[in-house]
Design goal:
InterPro entries: DgoD-like, Dipeptide_epimerase, Enolase-like_C_sf, Enolase-like_N, Enolase_C-like, Mandelate_racemase_C, Mandelate_racemase_N_dom
Structural class: alpha/beta
CATH superfamily of the largest domain: Enolase-like C-terminal domain
Number of strands: 14
Shape: globular
Largest sheet: 8 strands, parallel
EC number: 5.1.1.-
Helix content: 25-40%
Oligomer: single chain
Strand order of the largest sheet: 5-6-7-8-9-10-11-12
GO molecular function: metal ion binding; racemase and epimerase activity, acting on amino acids and derivatives
Radius of gyration: 19 Å
Distance between the termini: 22 Å
CATH topology of the largest domain: TIM Barrel
Family: Belongs to the mandelate racemase/muconate lactonizing enzyme family.
Cofactor: Mg(2+)
Length: 327
């Protein structure tokens, strides 16, 4: 019997809208790779991201190009040499791991010699808006212990202060999505310090972040768009204190596990993040949570509906995936 690779596109409505510095959307469009042999089926989900030059069509084509290799017994390790980092490789990689777990009866975390996944607290994202709407959103989410605040550049000090008023007890992460500029970064850093922010994610555009080498700060700065996989670590020296590992950027769980180990060996803190997707995309990333100082796997919480079965969330506490979902 031969393994077969297939690909599908699914759409999930977002609850309201999800807005960041680069725009707003009302649905999550995900691509799912499936590896099957007889009754055994493994799945992996990815989210094509225009910021990295990806479209749904281009990701589908890259996945379909692996059909013969999968039929011939392609492994996750081999996949690293066959495909570049990105969403397509992530979907195939996670599908292969899920397939192997279901074939062997051994969970993926054991095969990768990782700690057993445990319930963990995830950040909850507040979309970009005017200070008044963000304060209202923060007040509504103030019971959550960790909030991730999307910022947009001009006017961010007012937004930061408004969120802190709305959620005086929550820990805060801010994510500028490359929207700050050299002439505003000092003012924005001061506003974050005044609000007791714990982490600042990607303040300056990737490729234009050398200024971070010279700026004194009391708040750790985390690379997101500036880092995809291990090949980019050398460029981060003296600029960042942490990295956001997303499986869609790294190109799968295989690379993400190695990236997390290499980053920790260099003294970088780990954040495990996600695109806006379903529980199927979050499940593999849960295996990295034990290595992370911050976990941001709230994608399903932002959707109007998740897939079934999905991850179990109790407020901001997310539980490990069941075998029926993944791994």
């Amino acid at each position: 019997m031969t393994r077969r690779l297939s690909v599908s596109v699914e759409r999930f409505p977002i609850s309201g809208a999800f807005t960041i510095a680069r725009g707003s959307r009302t649905e999550a469009v995900v691509v799912v790779a499936t590896v099957e042999e007889g009754e055994i089926r493994g799945r992996g989900e990815c989210v094509p991201y225009a910021r990295y030059g990806e479209t749904v069509e281009s990701v589908i084509a890259l996945i379909e190009a692996q059909e013969r290799a999968v039929a011939d017994g392609l492994s996750s390790r081999d996949l690293l040499d066959r495909m570049k980092p990105g969403a397509a490789r992530n979907a195939v990689d996670c599908a292969l791991w899920d397939f192997e777990a279901k074939r062997s009866g051994q969970p993926v975390w054991e095969m990768l010699a990782l700690d057993a996944p445990a319930p963990t607290t995830t950040a909850y994202t507040l979309s970009l808006g005017d200070p008044e709407s963000m304060e209202a959103a923060a007040r509504k989410a103030a019971y959550r212990p960790l909030l991730k605040v999307k910022l947009g550049g001009e006017g961010d000090p007012a937004r930061i202060a408004a969120v802190r008023r709305g959620a005086p007890e929550s820990r805060l992460i801010v994510d500028a999505n490359e929207a700050w500029r050299p002439e505003t970064i000092i003012e924005n850093l001061a506003a974050c310090t005044a609000a007791g922010v714990g982490l600042i994610e990607q303040p300056l555009p990737a490729g234009e972040d050398a200024l971070l080498e010279t700026i004194d700060r009391t708040i750790p700065i985390c690379a997101d768009e500036s880092l995809h996989d291990r090949a980019g670590l050398d460029a981060l020296a003296r600029r960042y204190d942490a990295i956001n590992i997303k499986l869609d950027k790294a190109g799968g769980l295989t690379e993400a596990v190695m990236l997390s180990a290499e980053a920790q060996s260099r003294g970088l803190a780990i954040m495990v993040g996600c695109m806006v997707g379903t529980s199927l995309a979050m499940a593999p990333a849960m295996l990295l949570a034990s290595r992370a100082a911050y976990v941001d796997l709230d994608g399903p919480l932002l959707l109007a509906r998740d897939r079934e079965p999905g991850l179990h969330y109790e407020g901001s506490l997310v539980h490990p995936p069941t075998q029926a979902l993944w791994g």
